[in-house]
Amino acid sequence: MPFDVFTMAAVRDELDAVVLGARVDKVIQTSELAVALKLWRREWSGHLVMSAAASHARVYVTEGKLAKGFETPSPFLMLLRKYCTGGRIEAIRQA
User: Fold this and answer.
1) 71 vs 2: which has the higher pLDDT
2) How far is the C-alpha of 39 from the C-alpha of 37, rounded, in Å?
3) Is the pLDDT of residue 63 over 70?
4) Which residues contact 48 (CB under 8 A, 6 or more apart)?
5) What's the pTM value of the predicted model, to 2 decimals?
6) Pair 47, 61: CB distance under 8 Å
7) Is it the case that residue 35 has pLDDT exceeding 90?
8) DSSP strands (E only) in 1-95
9) Angstrom distance (rounded) from CA 27 to CA 49
């Protein structure tokens, strides 16, 4: 299936409907190249998972519980926790 600008626009619209205005409660690293933000809103709570793996690059929302991938957090994960935890998702933009 081709992944073009129109497909990305549809993904952005779906994410806008679900996660816009949500607060970031926690940041976890589910695998070496994937990070999940635990989000909370009055009507919904779940995870926004973002993966940069070459064979499985994806962004999706899940309400299921996620497991930590690593015992020791990476420096990148610590940086994300510092700046993202407690923040709100105000906008999702497509370049």
Assistant:
1) 71
2) 6
3) yes
4) 15, 19, 36, 37, 39, 59, 60, 61
5) 0.87
6) yes
7) yes
8) 23-31, 34-40, 45-51, 58-62
9) 10
